[in-house]
Amino acid sequence: MPRSVLGRTALTPFGMSALGVGIWEDAPHTGCVRGDATMARIFGLTEAEAADGITWEQLSALFHPEDLARDQSERRRVREEGGLFAWEHRIVPAPGVVRWVLARGRFERRADGHIYGRGIVIDITDSRVDGPYEPPVGFLGAPTESGTAVERMADYAMRLWELVGDLGPGEATRVQPLLEALLYELGRQIAASLSGEPPEAPRRPRNPRAH
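Structure (tokenized):
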């Protein structure tokens, strides 16, 4: 797990901007949510705002009101008690701009007795707007000891990603794109499992679009 908690250096310096995959951290007892540069771009925040942290209330204000109103008790349970989750929902980073995102992560209790969360958020707007409209699948939570094989793989991939910062610059440059691609593909698989549809054939990710 991360060696520091919500300190300025806790996030890896290597972002996933090329693939639209961001990293977030959440400490519910402090009300502080942080993210890397890619998460900031997806949510319409400045890099400084995401790095320093915003309140849960500020972040929630960016969620689409229809999706924010759904599954409230389940979201609260995972943040208060711990567990794995996947959440497909819409965000409104600016007036008139709607993006579809898939958030995946884990909340767990650490040695200090508090619950901490960490995971990824993927901009899946392109895959959603290219087809007929369907409402977001919603929030799915599971105890930390359960989850599908793909979810467990995503959890292990996140742990590998946390170690990238320990590599030298040359090693990180070679390893980072491989882990980025793996996390992106696992996110696609999770999104497909939520919708009940088989994932499309892999394609080179496009730059996220705002709609």
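The beta strands are 21-27, 32-35, 54-55, 83-94, 97-109, 115-123, 138-142. Confidence is low (pLDDT under 50) at residues 1-18, 202-211.
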